[in-house]
Amino acid sequence: MLHWYLMKPKSKDTPGSLSEDDTLVVKALHKNSKDSLQSLAKSCGFSQQKVQRIIKRLENEGIIWGYTAVTDEKKQGRLRYIVLIKRSMNKVDKEIVKKIAHLSYDEEYEKLEILIEDGFYLHGEYDWMIIFTAKSLRDAKKFSSVLLEKYPNLIAKVTLMHAMFSTKNHHIKNPNPEALFEFL
């Protein structure tokens, strides 16, 4: 569900807000970004040209960062994990911030066959969350250790969790909701 501020009509006083037309297109892309322009246009009630113009503009403005395939990690022999990180009170220099911002491109993680899906800087009990897949719990634990080694003065605590079931991933409902019964 899009937040309320995405629903407000675009105004010059509100940078980054989306018009109602933009919001309809974004919602349609969330449902299936692989849909044809014709299908997207039909679901929005617009012409294909209008949808194409909106998408192009949203891409140029950086509102749409990219597109992805939502895959079943278990069928790939992988498991999904979440690492929650509480940072220390030590000062962070700009080079460390750059390393963190480009976390998913690290060769060390690739050697461990860690695929980072998402990374979030948080407000709350924890300061950072990384969602990733690994081939085993052992590899996920190695990744947690590498983070502690790589940022020794920055990280106060790391909590590793195994995400066992996803009801929704990247706006896409799980096509096999009955699999949840395995865990309950």
The coarse silhouette is: globular
Count of discrete alpha- or pi-helical segments spanning 4 or more residues: 7
How far apart are the termini? 27 Å
Count of the separate structural domains: 2
Most strands sheet: 4 strands, antiparallel
Descriptive overview:
The chain is of the alpha+beta class. The chain folds into two domains: 4-60, Orthogonal Bundle (Arc Repressor Mutant, subunit A), CATH 1.10.10; 74-169, Alpha-Beta Plaits (2-Layer Sandwich), CATH 3.30.70. It contains seven helices and six strands. The strands form two sheets. Strands 2-3-1-4 form a four-stranded antiparallel sheet, covered by helices on one side. Strand 2 (115-121) and strand 3 form a beta hairpin.
What characteristics describe this protein?
2 domains, two-stranded antiparallel sheet, single chain, alpha+beta, Arc Repressor Mutant, subunit A, Alpha-Beta Plaits, 184 residues, globular, four-stranded antiparallel β-sheet
Structure summarized in a few sentences:
The protein is about 35% helix and about 20% strand. It has helices spanning about 5, 20-30, 35-45, 50-60, 95-100, 105-110, 135-150; strands at about 80-85, 115-120, 130-135, 155-165, 170, 170-175. It is globular.
